[in-house]
Amino acid sequence: MDVQKSAMETTVAARLNDLVRERGQLLPALWRVMEEYRQLSPELLEAVSLFMDIPYAEVYGVASFYALFENASGNTPMYVCTDVMCALQGAESLKEAAKANLGTKVTVHESACLGQCDYAPAVWSGSHVLRRATADDVTAAVEAITHE
Amino acid sequence: MNEVRRLLPGKQTSSSPISKERLVERGFDRALDYALALEPEEIISTVTKSGIKGRGGAAFPTGVKWSSVSKAEGSVKYVVMNADESELGTFKDRVLLEEDPLGALVGLVIGAHAVGAKKAYCYIRGEYREVEQTLARAIETLRHGGWVGPHGVEIEIRRGAGAYIAGEETALFNSIEGKRPEPRVKPPFPTTKGLWASPTLIQNVETLANVAILFAHDLHWFTAYGTQDTVGTKLVGLSGHIRRPGVYEVPFGTPMQEILDAPELGGTVSGSGRLGAVLLGGAAGTFLTPQEVKNTVLDYPSLGAIGASIGSGAIMVFDDTVNLEWVVTKLARFFAEESCGQCVPCRIGTKRILEMMETGELWTRTSDLRALGQAMKDASICGLGQTAPVALLSILERPELRHHA
Amino acid sequence: MENTVTLTIDGESVTVAQGTTLRAACEEVQHPVPTLCWHENLTAANACRACVVEVKGSRTLVASCSRIAEAGMEVQTASERVLNSRKVVAELLLSTSDASIAPDLQSLAAISSADAERFSGGNTWAQPVREDNNLYVRDLAKCILCYRCVEACGDDAQNTFAIAVAGRGFNAHIDAGFGRDLPESDCVYCGNCVAVCPTGALIGKREFDLRARGEWDEDKITTTPTVCSFCGVGCELDLHVMDNQIIKVTSPLDHPVTHGMLCVKGRFGYEFAQSEEPV
User: Fold this and answer.
1) Of B192, B222, B252, which residue sits at a domain end?
2) Which of A91, B3, B246, C221 has CB 3.0 to 4.6 Å from A121, enough for a Cys bridge?
3) Which of residues 45-64 of A touch C (CB under 8 A)?
4) A24 — contact with chain C (CB < 8 Å)?
């Protein structure tokens, strides 16, 4: 038995412990794991599959559908909206600014419309939104995460 | 005179958006106590008489929907608030939930009582993390007031995880049920077989807020605004080349040009200062020429006459320097990335449209694009595939927009 | 009569039992509609949209495989819109997937006068063949995402749930989870996914190898019915024989026990029947 793997299974099970083990709780379960690990790796999905008693292929089928679960690096994600309204207001340069100062703790994702068009261009850190973001704002946000 | 604030709280509103005081200030406590004491049929009759239509895009008469769910057979029923606003250029539900989260929740509680549901869900897009937290606190306020809880209706928030299609009502049910958010074939409709195959009332945030203000006042008050076809006010989201981007509440029937130009609304076109085109209704919307903007009002018949619709209320403004071919390519990428992949016309069609836009074939392959677009409109399972080609086809119908492209 | 409904199909009046799908009703009046994802023993997936028909009063076309016939419906199976959609569906699939051993897709293309080149030139599903076990091969360049295999693996037959649709959009695909090999998955090798696959994307190893060597010859194949002897259930088998070798085993779709589905022994146990080594 893989010791590390079973440790992960235990941690995941503890994180999901108060959830009812039914299919309707799969999305909340995936979010909890995502928030803890910032990624959904094969091992983590295996643990979710075991705990929730939902076949692995199905858990993967669901998890792989959602854009916010796509963060293989496990870094803090930074979503730069590059959709029409933000692109009109210079989103490309924000993306470049974010990527230029990336470091090893942040992964930049290009995002579809974040629903912040009244404050374009927008960047979302996963917890809060940078509105009318400038390259300096993005650089500062990346640095703040790096020094967390 | 054009901006109204009914769905959005008046500017003098001073209480915290999630507080008991806000409930009182907005008349929502009164609305709840009044509505919950009514028989379900009386509520539905009032909603029907009000003429409220769904504000998520389809404009289906709300009273008819409530009546269907109420009459549908089944001992368990659900109500769902659709706050999965992910349509490009659309942010009205976010602003409404930020400024007045209790309104839509009050509408949800009244809806639950009207159709006999004990359980309600608020499905909110994953990117609206801060709004979700506001919503959770607002639910607590209603719980303390006794309107939410085991003796009334329980409300659970479900957080989406980045999927535009999950806003499609049946895909949303699948998402809640822990399945892939792929749309289901209709019929059966949600009113008879929705969440967990039970009759389900699903409404957009803005629709529910309309119900709240209706019961906080009365029919006479509610119907003071609007047109013969559509009563009430509409939230529109102005973005792009506009001096005052934001969400505004305007009566149905307001001239489109005024929405762009009025000092208390859009405040005129920014950028070059000259209007190039408007994309109305979201990614699946219609491009309007400056002339069309001049000649139409915000109402279904007026816009329908030129093949357009209000959709989500998104009004994306482009000055005359914007290359609309670039915009159409962006829209194509959006649909290709957001297609669930279930049906052939949408899964492959959105990809092929994107490829054709990327290689600059908008004006050279019009007959192929029309045939493909028609097949997508006709044969896709859901609204995403059916409307994905609409904006593109609308540009083909307006060759005068070509010189911008 | 109470348990029948009368509707018109291409102007012809027809009375069918309540609960009949439009697809079945069309077949009854001999105006058959083409299908790809539909399978008589599986839940209709509604995915391919090849079977759409026009129903008067409906804004969009409707998938005849799953729409139930209603009294008074006026159905057209060959309207301009239907013919356009059918043709585009065929063309889109041909632009994406390898249809070389997909008879249903080939016939859809033929009857709709599809132009295989019209939407070609973009991304396709070309990808390496996956041979990770001795019994069947996954040649997913041929997949049209009809969902049949997923349904057969799931609650329509096998209840194993070893595979599911994953990803989305053009990248949606059949997956055992993170692309893992079948031996690492929950697969029990019943081969029911292979049996229902309409395009050869899932194919028995023996057939795959024979085709690769150019030795697969439909004209030389004979079929012999027998009853499986591995256990007492009594599944009927069709042994497909070429050059005195069993090359494939299927079960009749209308067999009351199997409905075309078998277990690993029935499906792939023929390896033992012709082995010279004692089992």
Assistant:
1) B222
2) A91
3) 45, 55-61, 64
4) no
